[in-house]
TrEMBL record:
It comes from the Bacteria. CDD domains: MFS. It is found in: Cell membrane. Pfam families: MFS_1. Keywords: Cell membrane, Membrane, Transmembrane, Transmembrane helix. The chain crosses the membrane at residues 42-65, 72-99, 105-124, 131-152, 158-179, 207-229, 241-263, 272-290, 296-318, 325-346, 352-375. This is MFS transporter. Its main location: membrane. The keyword Cell membrane applies. The keyword Cell membrane applies. It is a multi-pass membrane protein. Residues 6-381 form the Major facilitator superfamily (MFS) profile domain. The lineage of its organism: Bacteria, Pseudomonadati, Pseudomonadota, Alphaproteobacteria, Acetobacterales.
């Protein structure tokens, strides 16, 4: 029997957790001016999240399996909310950066625990839709964080960040109330970590799903990170370029929802992986070849929309890909680690190629799409 109340509480928590990422760009200039960081230093407040996940995603997943997904979820939310309050009150750069590191750890715990709890809360026929909904947490949360910009302008970044911190605290209480204690499996206390890792590697499917997610993020951040600069190089204004990037992010959230609905109607998630990867790669490559800014915007929006089929399909595939339900959290941690490694490494490579020629930026996008298609086909087999 499907219980939608826990799913809604976890989804709200995920969105508010991701809002702690989106809040930084909305206040980056203000914070940089207050602490004398400059743009590069202020941008470090964003990349600390990706660095934490790139280094510790699998470890956090193993820890979540040990303590249980519900405890991990609540611990991550509480840790993130407290760190967010600390960030809003930070008197200097060192404490602000430390608070962001702790926020990143809390967000990781939330992200690895949530899919298993959602899967345990819904009937098999509703799992695709539920995972499609969960797939929207990152783009929706980042958009919510960006929407704090008017509050930053009106009342200051500290007030805006404290508001988001209190909302995350409210989400913690909501999950503590609505998410039942009985649910996703916990790894046996005596299960050696090496044995869990061997089981994940032997299953192979979790590694393929992690590869799909990583290559998807090469394409997604290849668009998200460079679309404004690409449009400005074609003569678009800064405001219009930023608005186009926001529309593309919302289109990605919509693609996740469509993916969930299609899986609910019986479409195989591995087929969505192949179609989404192929379509996203071709249209993403067009962003850096077509010389018209309006066409470029349309291609970027379509690429992000069809690419949105992939995350929801991957989250739906994971519960059936692991040899034991207790290994779901480590598998999600592995996927998140690969995702953030791609997020760290791909933008500098694409940026270096784009500096030589925008058309060269298509090469890593097409290669990532090809690898995602091959991984999706192997999942089908």
């Amino acid at each position: 029997m499907t219980r939608w109340a826990p799913v809604a509480a976890i989804l709200a928590a995920g969105i508010l957790g991701a809002a702690q990422i989106g809040k930084v760009p909305a206040a980056m200039t203000t914070i940089g001016a207050e602490f004398g960081l400059g743009l590069a230093g202020a941008a470090l407040l964003v990349s600390l999240f990706a660095l934490m996940a790139a280094l510790g995603g699998l470890a956090i997943g193993l820890a979540a399996a040990r303590i249980g997904p519900r405890r991990a979820l609540l611990a991550g939310l509480a840790l993130g909310a407290l760190a967010a309050v600390g960030a809003a009150l930070a008197p200097n750069t060192a404490l602000l950066l430390l608070a962001r590191v702790v926020e990143g750890a809390g967000f990781l715990l939330l992200a690895v625990a949530a899919p298993g709890l959602i899967a345990a809360s819904v009937a098999a026929q509703d799992r695709g839709l539920a995972m499609g909904l969960w797939g929207t947490y990152m783009p929706a949360g980042i958009a919510l964080g960006l929407l704090s910009a008017p509050l930053v302008e009106a009342a200051g970044w500290r007030f805006a960040w404290m508001t988001l911190a209190l909302l995350l605290g409210a989400a913690t209480l909501s999950c503590w109330t609505l998410v039942p204690r009985a649910g996703a499996a916990t790894a046996p206390t005596g299960a050696p970590i090496q044995a869990q890792l061997r089981a994940l590697v032997a299953a192979r499917a979790p590694l393929r799903i992690a590869a799909v997610f990583a290559t998807y993020n090469v394409m997604y951040f290849g668009i998200a990170a460079f679309l404004p600069a690409r449009l400005e190089s074609l003569g678009a204004g800064t405001g219009g370029a930023g608005a186009a990037a926001a529309v593309a992010a919302l289109a990605n959230a919509g693609g996740n929802l469509v993916s969930g609905l299609l899986m609910g109607r019986g479409v195989a998630p591995d087929r969505l992986v192949v179609v989404g990867a192929l379509g996203m790669a071709v249209m993403a490559a067009g962003v850096y070849v077509v010389p018209d800014p309006f066409v470029v915007t349309g291609l970027a929006v379509l690429a992000c929309a069809i690419g949105g089929l992939l995350p929801a399909a991957c989250f739906a595939l994971l519960p059936r890909a692991v040899p034991s339900p207790a290994l779901l959290a480590p598998a999600v941690g592995l996927v998140i680690q690969g995702n953030n490694l791609a997020q760290l490494l791909a933008p500098p490579l694409i940026g270096a190629l784009a500096t030589l020629s925008w058309s060269l930026a298509t090469l890593p996008l097409l290669l990532a799409g090809l690898l995602a298609v091959l991984a999706g086909r192997s999942l089908a087999r």
